[in-house]
Structures are given as C-alpha cells and as structure tokens.
Design brief:
Shape: rod-shaped
Largest sheet: none
Oligomer: single chain
Helix content: over 70%
Strand content: under 5%
Number of helices: 6
Order of helices and strands: HHHHHH
Number of strands: 0
Radius of gyration: 45 Å
C-alpha cells in the first residue's frame, strides 16, 4: 500500500509540474508568436486578391510563407509545435491574438494615412494644373492692343491695302458677270 501512495503522490507532483505557467523552451515566446501570426494573416489577406484557382494557394502562397518564416528566423515545424501548445492554453492564445489585432490595426492605419497623403498630394497637383490652365485662358482675354502708334498705323495700312484689293477683285468679278449676263430680248416682241 505504501508503494501505491508513493506512486500516487509522485504522479500528482509530475502533473502539477507539467501544468506550470512557464512556456517550454522549444515553443515561440508570445511576442514572437504574435509577430508570426500577424505576418501570416497579412499574407492570407493578400492571397484573396489573387485569382482563386485550384492551385493558387500553392502557386502564390507557398513562397510568401517560406520567405516569412525565414525573415522571422523560424520554420513551419517550430510554428506548428508552438501553435499546438498555445491551443492548449486559451488564455495565452487570446492574449497573443489581442496583440495581433492591435498590430494589424496599426499597420492598416499607417497604410491608410500614407494613401490619404498621396491622394491629397495628387489632388493638390491636379488643382495647381487646373489653376495654371485657367490663368492662361484668363490672361489671353486681358491682352491689351499695341500702344505703339506706328505699329497700329502699319496694321491699318495693311488692312486698307487688303480691303482695296478685295474690292477691286469683287468689282472685276461683277463686271464679268454683267457682260456675260446680257438681258435676253426677243426681237419679235
């Protein structure tokens, strides 16, 4: 009986030691796990923009996941082991996903801010371009005729010469028509 009591207490001691609050050494720390999950969810979101073909996840996603694991100095086996551990610890996993949520919101806000600034800059450039066009059109209407009397006189002489030439041509044309178009008179009338 003494053996059973000793065995019972040693098993209870081992079970209590295994259920400790410390994270095992071969599992990613919560901050590192939050970073991996954040990047993974961003990659998942980017894959929604790719045409959904049967092998699109393998074709477009595998390379992104491998690059992400290399950039964060981990691998799929280490991540899977960590995910299995945190799945058994829901309170820790919930805290990690709170960090993931905050991180994704911060990244989304910064992207939106940059896009807004670019949009404002493009709008400002367009408005300046439109302003220049309007200014050019308005400045053309405000042109003042020459104040140089000699230039005005030369312009008026050119206009007079042109007018005289056109009047002579018109007069000749009328004379030709009048000679050709003699009234028909019937001598029998």
């Amino acid at each position: 009986m003494h053996k059973y009591i000793t065995l019972f207490f040693s098993a209870a001691l081992i079970l209590c030691a295994c259920n400790s609050k410390s994270i095992p050494g071969d599992v990613l720390k919560p901050d590192a796990m939050a970073g991996v999950l954040t990047e993974m969810h961003i990659i998942d979101g980017s894959l929604y923009n790719v045409m959904q073909a049967p092998d699109s996840l393998y074709k477009y996603g595998a390379g992104k996941y491998v690059a992400m694991f290399q950039r964060l100095h981990t691998d799929t086996a280490h991540f899977n082991k960590s995910m299995r551990y945190y799945a058994t610890q829901p309170d820790k996993l919930l805290a990690i996903y709170d960090q993931v949520d905050i991180s994704i919101k911060n990244k989304t806000d910064s992207v939106n801010k940059v896009q807004l600034e670019q949009s404002k800059a493009a709008h400002k450039a367009d408005s300046l371009k439109n302003l220049n066009i309007k200014t050019k059109a308005d400045s053309a209407k405000k042109v003042v005729p020459h104040e140089n009397a000699a230039a005005r006189k030369a312009d008026s002489l050119d206009n007079l010469k042109t007018k005289a030439y056109l009047e002579k041509k018109l007069h000749r044309h009328k004379n030709k028509k009048s000679k050709k178009a003699k009234p028909l008179t019937n001598p029998n009338i």
